[in-house]
Amino acid sequence: MIDKNVVVEIDGKTLVGRERFHDTFAKALGFPDFYGRNMDAWIDCMSSLDDPESRMTSVHVGRGKVLTLKIRNYKYFKKAGKDEWLDLLECSAFVNFRCTEPGQNPLIALAFFE
């Protein structure tokens, strides 16, 4: 059983534009080949971070643990990729809601760095 928190660092400059956003997350977190490359599919993959048997990601956290997404160059990302920025915030919040509603811990923490 995986029993740890995990930090994944991503350059915010690679998240600007829908295609690049999905390319970056698919590569960084090991989404499956059938990944739908939309925010519903992103939510499904990210909701499975603590379930290695689902094979939705190659990065996993322990049950009750957290994946920290450390986003560098966040000011650039926030300004140049406004839609993707909001998608990241809203969909991360939804993943956490999905986890906390049945009484589990949140799965995603966001950390922003210049």
Q: Which ranges are low-confidence, i.e. pLDDT below 50, for 5 or more consecutive residues?
A: none
Name the shape in a single word. Answer: globular
Q: What do the pLDDT scores average to?
A: 95
Helix/strand class: alpha/beta
In CATH's first tier, which class applies? Answer: Alpha Beta
Straight-line N-to-C gap: 35 Å
Plain-language structure description:
The protein is of the alpha/beta class and 114 residues long. It has one domain: Barstar-like (Barnase, Chain D). The protein has four helices and three strands; from the N terminus they run βααβααβ. It has a three-stranded parallel sheet, covered by helices on one side. α2 crosses α4 and α3 packs across α4. The longest helix is centred in the C-terminal third of the chain and has 19 residues.
